[in-house]
Amino acid sequence: MKKLTLILSAFLGLGMNLTFAQAPKGNILIKNATVLTVTQGTQENADVLVQDGLIKQIGKNLNAPAGVETIDATGKFLMPGIIDAHSHVALDVVNEGTSPITSEVRMKDMVNPYEIGIYRALAGGVTVSHAMHGSANVIGGQNATLKHRWGSSNPADIIMQDAPRTIKFALGENPTRVHGRGNGIQPRTRMGVEAVIRNGFNEAIQYKKAWEAYNAGKAQKGNTLTPPAYNERLQTLVDILDGKIIVHCHSYRADEIYMMINVFRDFGIKKLVFQHTNEGFKVAPEIAEYTMGASVFADWWAYKMEVYYSTAFNAAILQKNGVITSINSDSAELIRHLYHEAAKTQRYGGLTDEEALAMITINPAKQLGLDSKIGSIEVGKQADLVIFDHHPLSVYAVPQMTFVDGVKYFDIQKDKDDQRQIVSATEMVEPVYLRNAEEDDHRCMQDLDAYYEAFQGAFMGHKH
Amino acid sequence: MNKIIKTFCAALLATLPFAAMAQIDGEFVKPRSGKFLLQNATVVTITKGTLNNTSVLIENGKIAQVGSNIAAGDAEVVDCTGMFIYPGMIDGGTRLGMVEVSSVAETVDYAENGNVTPNMQALTTINPNSEAIGVTRVSGVTTALAVPTGGLFPGTAALINLNGYTPDQMYGGFKAIVMNFPSSGRRGRFDRRSDEDVKKDAEKAIKEANDIWEKAKNYWELKKSGAQLQYYPEMEQLSKAVSGELPLLIVVDAAADIQSAIKWVADKKIKVIFSGVAEGWRVADEIAKAGIPVITGPVQDLPTRESDRYDAAYANAGKMAKAGVKVALRTDEEENVRNLPFHAAYAAAYGLGKEEAWKAVTINTAEILGVQDQYGSVEAGKRANLIVSTGDPFETKTQIMHVFIDGYRIPLSNRHIRLYQEFLERSPGLKAN
After folding, report:
1. Which residues, in sequence order, are CB contacts of B218 under 8 Å at separation 6+?
2. Yes or no: is domain B89-375 CATH 3.40.50.300?
């Protein structure tokens, strides 16, 4: 009987975990901080009250309700949790590089809550990351938006369940290299990339019509219709056409960005964000007019041909042309200092503090469809917060505490020497990973092993 | 005429309220030499304190005078009121000018084939017109060590100033033979060798290094004795490290390898500099005891082990300095050497402190390379490598207003800035004109 109960509860528990994962929600009062709300100005010596994981009140001389912990942040700066609109943190696998279209795969099946990168991101004030499929395919997999609830062993706990669906597209060198040069199929050129997208969507429209015809016909008496074969790949493309998924498109050159806008105009798809977008500055008015913006590097350039004609002023030009612009990491290293990356828009283009901070908070929130929930310090929003010792745009700023839903997941005073959750049982000696000058930390082209072997690592260089 | 130009410039300034460039692009298009008086600044000399209301006279490519009452004479006066003068920063380890586009093999010239190629000269491959050089120097980095990479002895590094039209004009007076010390760590996350293979490969490589070194020693002994030697360019070059004519720049990162390297050089009586030294903090006392100077970095880097604190790389330089190691910094970069001030700032914030961090990108680097009589501080007699800024050049929003290299006034322009000027307000804009 006892055994049966155990089995039963284990079974139920499993079900609970998968379907009703309950993320912890905290209560806290942060006192006397310089509060950088991002959307509603800066408040000096202000308090922020968090209850049940949400921002309840912002003001002066707030009192902590019974049982709510108070944190004295006198002399410190409080900002919204940083949002990384392009990351591969906590993903066991990044690329399903087997077909130019793999819209059926989902990154949320690949989430590893033990990855130390989550803790390191928290130590850099990042509370939400957009864990993306890689850039091997023209239409890649569906991404996962993560909340960095470090310490859970359940992937469902760190997936932001209330985030809209997003999917990765990729233009230019990466898909043409993997499929065109690597496998001898389309796309080999940027013309082929356009064709792959157009063909995919046209096929999806046919698929949608077949289902519509079936659904209309099956209501009629005496019909002998058989349903079309279900196809997850095409159904996902239909969902894009129906506006149910935000497309995040890896892109570099102005020509391909312009092409993508035209293709999406033709298909009436509106939810489009460009990623990387190094030459976005050249078509900034077009991006501003049609899309949900661009997510860019602060200063990366010259690591491949399609980013040679870049400028570190890209973010500033985009911003001043009305593009919703975010600064992302695409790197396990950069994700730890996005506040510094955002500050580079002040050296390169003289953006204001609020414009610069928006690029790592409310702007990426908009691009992920989450600006009503996160991205600023406003009453009613989720309490993702970071405390800094200096203004976060100062190069000397060091994050002190990071909260997700009002729960503290990083505290510099309690940072231990070894923060791993699990230790590999198969590794006798912990590996030492040394920097390879010719290899970077980002993983947009990870998991293309066969490809690397075939080309003897010739493309081991920069991979995003 | 002059007035018209001035008025025009003023108008141009007014129309570019967002202009982040200190100088107006096109004001002058190429570096120009001359006699300049940088007047009335706060001068951070690095070696002789910070001097208020002080001017610096540049003449014949050198700092002629630093003082408060310098007559302008025929010098071109650059008003620096409210601004700061610092020595140009030195990056102690880069591939600057040796590559144009890293993924395009045809433009990658920092790694030759072969394991023992010490005769490969970094200076030969420096492209004075590389876009990255113009992008770098406006950040205040005026000098960089160009380091070849690849095999065990990949080549000879060279110090370059970021101004000049030929490698010789850029040459900064320091060379070193590079050694990639055999590594027992994994080279990046794509290194899929087994633990055993990694260890075996390292042991084999150490043995090979010993054999090669013995050969170079023999070559040097024979050469000294006046023997007739066959043409052997590798040994000819390597023997310069044996004899002490050139220092050996040993690139080494993992703690165990640093320890092996300390042992390896102990009985060799050669000039040694360690470079990289990612896990230096683990064995800082041993490095200090050995008295080997270190050029470490990048600072903005991941920890080498998953069990390490998140800030291990940020804090590394500070921990080594505290243990008594002489520390300079490097970015190990090519196109983004311009981030050296930010790497230094991170080292400062995580334990090194601002003053030591400044030394680590100026005078310490100069002393480690043995060129402190020419570089690394604002002192009369040194090369006029100077930057003028609106504030602390490490701070992200600070603007660099003027750059002087070897006494040449450098135009604050490059392709990044020109693209900004062209595309900030594109014409035609959204609709065709």
Report:
1. none
2. no
Q: Which residues of A touch B339 (CB under 8 A)?
A: 299
Closest by CA position to A282, among listed A247, A240, A251, A310: A310
Which sequence spans correspond to the domains of chain B? 2-87+408-423, 89-375
Nearest to A298 by CA among B101, B336, B276, B382: B336
Q: The tokens 């025929």 sit on which residue?
A: B74
Q: What is the mean pLDDT of residues B176-183?
A: 96
Residue partners of A25: CB distance under 8 A and separation at least 6 = A52, A53, A54, A405, A406, A407
> What ipTM was reported for this prediction?
0.93
- DSSP assigned state of A382: B
The torsion region of residue A90 among left (phi > 0), alpha (psi -120 to 50) and beta comes to: left
For residue A410, the one-letter residue type is: F
> If you classify domain B2-87+408-423 with CATH, what class do you get?
mainly beta
Query: Mean pLDDT across the stretch B356-367?
Result: 98
Taking contacts as CB-CB distances below 8 angstroms, the residues of chain B near A308 are 100-101, 131
Q: Which two tokens stand for residue A372?
A: 């009503």
- Percentage of the residues of chain B whose pLDDT score is greater than 90: 87
Residue B85 to residue A449: CA distance in whole angstroms: 51
pTM: 0.93
Chain A nearest-CA residue for B428: A285
Q: Token pair for residue B275?
A: 């470079």
Distances (CA, A) of B429 to A264, A273, A311, A321: 21, 21, 19, 10
Please answer yes or no on whether A417 and B304 come within 8 Å at the CB atom: no
- Would strands A385-388 and A399-404 be described as parallel, antiparallel, or unpaired? antiparallel
- Degrees (nearest 5) of the Cα angle A248, A249, A253? 150
B236 and A CB contact within 8 Å: no
A309 touches chain B (CB under 8 A): yes
Q: pLDDT digit string (tens) for B26-47?
A: 667 899 999 999 999 999 999 9
DSSP state of A101: B
Bridge partners for A83 per DSSP: A128
Whether A179 contacts A186, CB under 8 Å? yes
The residue among B184, B310, B358, B416 with the most chain A CBs within 10 A of its CB, best to mutate, is: B310
Contacts of A452 in chain B (CB under 8 A): 190
Q: How many CB pairs under 8 A join A and B?
A: 199
Any B CB within 8 A of A422 CB = no
Structural domains in chain A plus CATH codes: 82-371+437-464 (3.20.20.140)
Contact between A302 and B131 using a beta-carbon 8 Å cutoff: yes
β-pairing verdict for B50-59 and B36-44: antiparallel
For residue B165, the model assigns a pLDDT of 97
CA distance A123 to chain B (A): 7
Rounded distance, CA A447 to CA A464, Å?
A: 12
Q: Residue A198 and residue A193: Cα distance in Å, rounded? A: 9
Q: Which residue of A has its CA nearest to B185?
A: A432
Name the pairing type of β-strands A139-142 and B386-389.
unpaired
Q: At residue A325, what is the residue type?
A: T
| Contact yes or no for B109/B119 (Cβ under 8 A) | no
Q: Six-digit token pair at A376?
A: 């600023």
Annotate A212-248 with DSSP letters as a single string. Answer: HHHHHHHTSTT----PPPP-HHHHHHHHHHTT-EEEE
Q: Report the DSSP pairing between strands B272-276 and B248-252.
A: parallel
Average pLDDT over residues B57-69: 97
Q: Give A-chain residues touching B102 at CB under 8 angstroms.
A: 302-304, 438, 461-462
Distance CA B376, CA B395 (A): 20
Confidence bin at B66 (pLDDT 50/70/90): very high
Using a CB-CB cut-off of 8 Å, the residues of chain B touching A116 are 306
Distance CA B8, CA B29 (A): 17
